[in-house]
Every structure is written in structure tokens, then in C-alpha cells.
Amino acid sequence: MRSLARFAAPLLAAALLLPGCAKRPPVPAPTGEDTAATAEAEVKPAPVDTLPTAVPPAVPPPPKVAVAVEPVVPEQATKQALEPKPAVNAAIKPPRSEPAAPAAESGQAARPAEAQAAATKTKRTDGPVVAVVGDSLAVGVGMTMEQRLAKAGGPGCLPMGKVSTGLISKKYDWEKALAETLASRPVSAVVVVLGGNDANNAIAGKGAGTPEWQEAYTAKVEHFLAIAAKAGVQVMWVGLPAMKDPAYGKRVAAVNAAARAGCAKTSGCRYLEPGDIFTDASGNYVQAKDIGGKTVSLRAGDGVHMTMTGYDLLCRRVLDVLGPVANPAKP
Predict the structure, then answer these.
(1) pLDDT greater than 50 at residue 48
(2) Of 32, 152, 242, 302, which residue is least crowded by CB atoms under 10 Å?
(3) Is residue 23 part of a domain?
(4) Domain residues for 141?
(5) Distances, alpha carbon 331 to alpha carbons 93, 131, 145, 232, in Å
């Protein structure tokens, strides 16, 4: 027993000195919060620096491409600045002396086939023609004369009427146009219906009806008629009809007086007064007349131009006075 006790004391001391065998403080039991924190820490994903693969990365927009603009040279810029820009006007009424071209009256419109046939007949390019020159009144006379001459089988018709023109107006050079026409083709006669716009235009600051204007306009008429006289072509100057507006009618009467005087001084010129076609027995303006027991309108609503019936009546008188020049069948 003494020998066992002698060995037991050293063994016990050695056991107490070995590592890991020292006495440690007790570890507290984990609480519910600690358990939740530990679980959360275990399942929380680590932060990532990129987007999930299910979402495509944002693509930056393509850079804008600058479009090269051709520089405007000074000449072009000046031209663009000086060129007149067309004005947009709604429902502008034509001048009193220049309404729209005459339209066919109700019941007188030709069927398409007839109109096409008439147009084909009147497009004559050979042989002598009767040239109708002047303003918008000449347009209506030329239309009806073209149809009548085509039916009669006589010389062709060359309608040359231009709206808003005259011997004073600079819009159209009638002297040049007449000279070129007479030099380029055979013309049997010239019918002039002109002056509706000239009645509203002053000459050297003087208006129609003044002595200065009358003298100057008569000289213009003579100079114009001399072109046909030099070419040996006879001219018929058709006076303007009575006008509805009294003031305008007086100016038109001054035009007729100057045209009559200029025609009297020119060889080969005859002046035709349309008077009684468009006036009553007292010489006053009338809008309509009784023809064959039926009241027929002869003048347009503006009191200046004529209906197609009015133009046709005037045209028939012109052709009757022209005689064989316009109709070879007549003696």
C-alpha cells in the first residue's frame, strides 16, 4: 500500500499539468436570438458586384452622328432672301374689270364628246387665221369665234386674249406679240377687244377722260394699229360695251373715244360700236334682253363681262362686218 501511494502522488501532479486538462469556464447555453443570428449569418448570400444574369446589362445609346450641312454660299443666301415668297390669300375677288373667264350658261354646256370634237376642229395650224387680241373680253370673243369659224369651214381662229392686259399695262407687250404673230404666220384679219384695264390706268399722272390722257392713249392706239397696217392686215377694233357702274362706264367711254380716233387715222382699220346689243333703246346698260320671247342674260354678274350668249351675239356681229375675210362664202 505504501508503494502505491508513493506512485499515485506523482501521477496526479502530472495529470494536472498536461494541456487541455486545465479547468475551463463553463460555456453558456445559446439563446433564441443568438440561434436566429447564427442562422441568418449562415444563409445570407455574400454581396455581388454584378447584376443577376436574368437582367441584361444596360446598353448605352449609340453616339449621335453629326450630319454635315452644306454651307450656303453668299450668292445663294442673297438670292433666297430676295426671292419673293408667294402670298397665301383666301377667296380673293378678281378686279372689277377682270373677273374669271366666261363660263357656259345653264343648259348650254357641251357634252365631253362634242367639246372634244369642237376642240379638234378648231386646232388649225395652216392657212390664214383671224387673230383675236385684247384683254379678258377678247378671251370670250375668241372662244365663240373659234367655234363659229370651225363650223363655217372658213379661216381658222387664233385666240390671243390675255387677262389683265392693255396698252398701258406693262404686264404684257401687245405690240411685240402682234408683230411676232404677223411675221410668223398668215393672218387674214385682226380683231381687237381692248381697253377695260386701260380705263383704270393713268398716263403721266392723268386719268382716263382728261385731255392729256385722251391724247396719249390715242397715240398708243395709232402706234399699235400701225403694226398691222405695215403688214397689210386689216383690223377691226371692237368698242367696249356699256358698263353697269356709272363711274367706270365714263372711263370706258373715254377709251372708246380714243380708240375710235386712232382707228380713223389708220388705214385698214374699222371701228365697231357694239352699243345696241347691250343697251336699251335709250342707250342704258341692260343685264338681260328678250330674245325669241325668252329673257336671256347677256352680262356677267360683275356688270363688266358677258355671258356666253352675250359673247356669241357680239361675235356674230363682228363676223358679219368682216364679211368675206372671215367667211369666203359671203360676197
Answers:
(1) no
(2) 32
(3) no
(4) 113-325
(5) 46, 21, 20, 21
